[in-house]
Amino acid sequence: MHHRAPLAAAGLAAVSVLLAGCFASGAGDPAGSAGTRIELAMMQPPRSGLSPFSDDAFKLSRWSAAETLVTLDDNGDARPGLATEWRRTSGTAWELTIRPGVKFHDGSTLTAAVAANTLTRAMKAVPKPRILDGVALTASVAGERLVVATETPDPLLPQRLSSPQLSILAESAYAADGKVNPVGTGSGPFRLVRVGGTTSATLDRYDGYWGEKAKAAGIDVSFVPDGTARAAAIRSGEAHIAEAVPVSQAALLDAKTISEVPMPRTNTLYLNTKSGPFADPAVRAAAREAIDRGQLISGVYENRADSAKGLLGPALPWTVQARQELTGRVPAGRPDGATITLATFTDRAELPEVASIIQQQLQDAGFTVNQVVREYAHIEQDMLAGEFDAFILSRATVLDSGDPVAYLKSDFTCAGSFNIAQLCDAGVDQAVRKAEAAEAGEQRRAAILEAEAAVLRTDAAIPMLHERVIQGDATSVVGSVKDPRERALVTAATHVK
């Protein structure tokens, strides 16, 4: 086990000093072998003590410490995980076969009862895992199989079970008071052995793993909120892998050490369809025609983003392959000097700059534009209440199930909980309901694209660009995963040559 001082956030002047004590083994050591430990610099520290019922679950997944019953392929289709197969036994019930021979890191064995225990505790957790919002789920055992039932039909249940927030842990992980301890209780190829608060974590190879044994001896994690410091760790050779390298730092790194991964995140201009100038569809169309995406991509994102042709982007390859040319759009009208309020927030550093460029583009098209920029916590309430004519948001379009229907429903239906555009359109609601009810696979994907087209025809939201995440890898790293969903990073195959 490695005990070391964490790589802390720092200004440029202190970066080199900090790096010296951050990682126990030199990432640039030419004598490294397949048994070398992987030094990993991550952006966000744990927020909930690495509870799998929180967003911290994605860290356990990216470290290959915890596993789920189901996994997803590139198209978002369900594939075997800790469950080898499943079948729908009724409109509301599914039966899953549990993979034999799986040992948890505490030595206990995976059974249907153990899996049912995790799902039952997830349903009772406070707060409940986001993947279970609005879902009433029960888990039981029939013979040696796991039975999962929902109150209403859920065609997406297998995909739901792929969420890292439903990672299956040994029964020893769960305390009577509801707390969950993932240390030594997962089932992946790496065993979590130590958590250093919000600064570090240590994982060792688990030789009892049911699948391919890990090629690396372990993972030493440092939580490094400062993007400049994460990039510096790759540049100096102190880290093997660094996640989320800022665009501004990417140009400073050797091109061989960075990779860009399309994210299911779209920078979108939401227009208030209920009140103000944008209640007129022709005026919304005028705003649509005013947007120059290329200027945003080159000027703000340094060409490290993709121009948006729809709400859903290249992180979901099937959307690019199957999307049809959009017809039936309202022609653009004349703004005639209409005064609008354009808002965004400061928490994502690039958004104020995007807002300034959009403000100029709209003014050039004939609008009079006032701009409001605040911290997100101080603007969200007004944003959701429709206080602004236009709002710029970097929005995740695929949530925990790997399916975009939840995003379309929350953002664009009459009863949507995140309906910034105040949109209430019967055609959109009908299309989203159809997508929500469709079976997983080609049928559902086709319905999703129909719903996307219905939203785009309203011009309630103007997708501008799809973001990418930039990952740093030392040239000695083999097999790190570039995952748009940010569920995988270090796997059993990842190692240092």
From TrEMBL:
Leader peptide range in chain numbering: 1-27
A GO MF label: peptide transmembrane transporter activity
Gene3D superfamilies for the chain: Dipeptide-binding Protein, Domain 3, Periplasmic binding protein-like II
Domain Solute-binding protein family: 79-417
Pfam families for this protein: SBP_bac_5
A GO BP annotation: peptide transport
CC terms in the record's Gene Ontology section: ATP-binding cassette (ABC) transporter complex; periplasmic space
Superkingdom of source: Bacteria
Keywords from the UniProt entry: Signal
Protein name: ABC transporter substrate-binding protein
Species this protein is from: Lentzea guizhouensis
